[in-house]
Each structure stands twice: as structure tokens, then as C-alpha cells.
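User: Predict the structure for this protein chain, please.
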Amino acid sequence: MQLETKIYQKENNLKIGRLIKESFKDLLGAHFLAKQLATRDIKSQYRQSYLGIIWIFITPLTSAFVWIFLSYTGTVQLSDTGVPYPVYVFSGTLIWSMITESINSPTSSTNGARGIMSKINFPKEALILSGVYKLLFNSSIKIGLLVVFIFLFGIGFHWSLLLFPFAMAAAILFGTTLGLFITPVALLYNDIGKIIGMTLSFLMYITPVVYVIPKDGMMKTLMEINPFTPLILTARDLALGKPPEFLGYFFGIIGMSIALFSIGLVFYRISIPIIVERMSS
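Assistant: Here is the predicted structure, written as C-alpha cells:
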């Protein structure tokens, strides 16, 4: 009997097209696991808290109250926003909090699963999807509160308000994409998380979150080239019924985010198993 001869050769598993396809396949296939992880994290987050879900509102409300107080007492002179300032500043701080949460979400979700990653083999993309589910849960509650503010201060309903959730979904995509590139490095070096926090605090003051873009000067230039600006302004304009000023820049940022998300997902897929092995050794 003639024996069959097989020749085994090392296969190149780093083909970008294959990696992107496999990453999205695992991302979509991890729906059930991601939902379970998100439900577990949400319940554990508020189980031992007296105020519970109210904590979702506290950060944007506190930030908004500080600027409202400074504005109404004359401590800080701000330009006219065209809408009641409490609505302007609350919508800005709320949208900003969603974006910053989406940036930090991949890192926090992955870091929180360190214990099980070294023991159980599962698609790591489930952690990304789990973070998105938690973001959507928190964001839906915040959007509901913003709608209350919009009606409370007499702005009322505009048809563009229906597009606001889509603008926020785009902003979450942008933040999550940044988070995918940050996560592997942040898992290796804790300093990265602190640097990101400081950077975001600085960026808030060169983004039209609590005040409008100046008419001239260096701050005007910085705000107009800032990629966070179209995300904040477009979402706020849609919520408040105003024509979006930076719509072209907004779509450009989203198009870039979609392209970079695929690359970031592959980067995450390749790097996380290596980091998990290093952490468990």
C-alpha cells in the first residue's frame, strides 16, 4: 500500500484581509457572550451603590452646574450660545462624557476580564462588543435626560432630534476606534491611562463643550481643526434643532473612523493574546 505524503508549510496568518474578515466574524458571533458580560458588569456596577443608576447623571450634571454657576455669577464671561445656556452646557458635557467613555471602554472591559482571559479561550472581540453594549445602555439614559432638558427650557421638539442618536452612535464609533489602539499599550503600562485622562481633560477646553468657538484668534483655529469639534457640534445641533455647521468635517471623521476601526480591531486581535500570555507568565 502506497503511503500518502503530505508536506506541511508554515502558513502566513498575517494577511490583513483574512484578519479583518475573521475579526468581524468573531465580533458578530460574540453577541451572546458580550450581552452576558455587559449584563453582569452593569448589575455589579450598581448593586452595591445606594444611588445606583443615578450616578450616570452625576458627572455631566456636576460639570454643567459648575459652568452655569460661573456664567450666571459673572465669574466667567461667555459668548452668546443662541440657546439657553443650561441646555447648551449640559448637552455639551453629556456628549463629551459619552465620547470619553467610549475611548476608555475597550481598556476597562479588557482590563476587567484579565482573570478569565488567561483561563478561558474565547473571542476577545466579545469584550469590545460588551463595552459597546454598556455604552449604549448608559447613553440611552443620558439621552432621555437631555430630552427632558430640551423641553424643560422651551426648545421643544425638532425633527432633527430623531437623528441625534445616530450622531451619538457615530461619536461612540470614533471613541471606540481610538480605544482599540490605546488598549494594548494601556494594559502593559498603567501610565498610559493617566496620560489619556490628562489629555482628555485638556482637549475639553479646546473643544466647544461649554462655550462657543471664538470669532478669531488661536483658540478659533485650534477648535476648528480639533476632530472632537464636529462630533460635539453636530450632535448638539441636531438635538437642539439647529443646522449643523461642521457636517462635512463630521462625515469625514466618521469615514476615517470606519476605516481605522477595521485596522484597530485587527491590532487588538493580534496584540491581546500576546499581552495575556505575558501577563500570565
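Residues 6-12 have pLDDT under 50 and may be disordered.
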